[in-house]
Amino acid sequence: MRVTLALLAQVEAIARAAGALILQVYGTDFAVAGKADASPVTAADEQAEALITPALQSLEPSWAVVAEEAASQGSTPQTGRRWWLVDPLDGTREFVSRNGEFTVNIALIEDGAPLLGVVYVPVQDLLYAGLVGQGAWLEAQGARRAIRCRAAPAEGWTLACSRSHGDAAATAAWLNGRPVAATIQAGSALKFGLIAAGLADVYPRLGRTMEWDTAAGHAVLRGAGGEVTDLAGAPLRYGKPGHENPNFVAHGL
Question: How far apart are alpha carbons 97 and 90 in whole angstroms?
């Protein structure tokens, strides 16, 4: 199967459908449970994943689907050259606190690198999409436009940082005097979208993340001309044992 803009459009529709389910739960007095790693989970996570996984399998049955909630219960399929990586509700803490900064993340991995990605923000009806070699797009309230990373301004970076996670002291040590003109706090994969759209320049993450947290945003960022690297400068890879990421830096041009 060819990876085309038509496939990207199909994945966007799946993300939107999952987002609609999530919003149904968001409007209720939902319960919050804890997983083995102490992270929260809700019916929205589970229902969105139950929609996304078979929808992706119907597109190309030979491509495995690695999804957060199934993986957290020990169900991780063997992956081949191409496979899907899904976080059905990235930013569950944002969902629980009802600040709206949670996303549906769907990525296609090829040879260990993110090739296609969709990050959908249900509360804002905001969608980031990217296909490496073809570009990246932002769609808001029905209006779609191409996006591109910017060159860092001479006066300093705009730093994207997590609203719910992160180590301020470790980030300050990593910055080591590098000029920062502004800081934007955002939840979930929104930080990758900010860089892809030229609204921020760098996002250092010095703490635990999983591959499903980053893959879709990474694909969008690559489509927009940016990259995500480990602290040694090597591009972040996918399909690692346990699907856990090292510390990383997402950046634009």
Answer: 13
- CATH number reported for the structural domain that contains residue 118 in this entry: 3.30.540.10
d(CA 200, CA 139): 18
> H helices then E strands: how many in the chain?
7, 14
Q: pTM of whole model > 0.90?
A: yes
31 shares its domain with 102? yes
Q: How far apart are the first and last CA of the chain?
A: 31
In order of 118, 124, 146, 188, 237, the CA distances from 223 in angstroms are 11, 22, 10, 19, 16
The mean per-residue pLDDT over the stretch 122-129 comes to 97
Residues 95, 23: one domain? Answer: yes
pLDDT tens digits along 61-96: 999 999 999 998 888 898 999 999 999 999 888 888
Helix spans in the chain (H) = 5-26, 43-59, 68-72, 92-97, 168-175, 190-196, 211-223
- Calpha distance 98→96 (Å, rounded): 5
Residues 6+ apart with CB under 8 A from 54: none
Structural domain range at position 168: 157-251
Q: Do residue 196 and residue 133 come from a single domain?
A: no
